[in-house]
Design brief:
heterodimer, A: about 140 residues, mainly beta, five-stranded mixed sheet, four-stranded antiparallel sheet, 9 strands, about 5% helix, globular, B: mainly beta, 11 strands
Chain lengths: ~140, ~230
Amino acid sequence: MRTPSQTAGPFLSIGLARRVQNELPGGSVPLRGYVWDGEGRPVDDALVELWNPAFGFARCPTDAEGGFTFLLPPAARRFEVMVFARGLLKPVLTRLYAPPGEGAEDPTMVARPEGDGLRFDVHLQGERETAFFEL
Amino acid sequence: MTAVPGLDPDPPYLYPDYVATRTRAPRRPLLPLPEELHSLEAPVFGEDALDPNDADLTAHGEGPPLGERIIVSGRLVDEDGRPIPNALIEIWQANAAGRYRHEVDRHPAPLDPNFTGAGRTLTDADGRYRFLTIKPGAYPWKNHPNAWRPAHIHFSVFGRAFTQRLVTQMYFPGDPLFPYDPIFNSVRDPAARELLVAAFDLEATEPEWALAYRFDIVLRRTPFEP
């Protein structure tokens, strides 16, 4: 039997965001996004992690508006995304596809152009709920 | 891919007694995990991920923090019992009075200028890790009337495979708050809940210095091992 998951709780930034790690090597494309709950409120105590073995690992805690930012390498087409937060007893797992999002499992996984970068929101619940994978 | 039959050791996303899950748990059916994710490796961290004294949470201030000094050590293995070496373990916790060094924590208990409550280490070649810290206090939260969290230390672990990523909480044996805590009880299988509770470890105790607790961590099986 394996050790069960537990929520990261509201204070996860103490342990998981001591160092800012939201710029990937060679990153030049700004990505901005927000995490939302099922009532459309910003989730201000989440941590978003991106991973692609060819480009690296990055993580960013959400701010008071539920926002997070990353700097992505322009050649990267896809990242695995895990989100941790108070109220999540285990992480949610999705993917981030750069537009146009070829091969995306679900349209909610495709970032859209915004300003000089990309926009990618995670809706944990609700009408616009992001598609998540079963771990 | 499930190695152990029976109840899923992980809690469900929606566990209404833990009120925050009601508006944060996904409700759409989950998509099957893409096949290639089964064999995806986890990020690897080196010594450069660590600061000096990261494994000694009693050494982050001008002097020693208040509270009961404890050793927390254990072994990181997968479900087949394979040790997981060179894995990054990050911990964070409240101080001895039950207060986190975080702007959102409004519990009227004292902060300790000598305690940040954050630690990191890498497992050794045999999957072993060790922290020196102080025993965290219980603290109230607003989930329901008179709600208190049992004392706990948050753990974050990267395994060898991406799917082995784990964030969990370590509890202390015999805590009287267990029956009342919806986060602990969100794990439905009593045997799985036991894995969240550290064991008192007399052997690892340092006489005249610190008591010790053992917390072994078991990750999903390593998918790219036979």
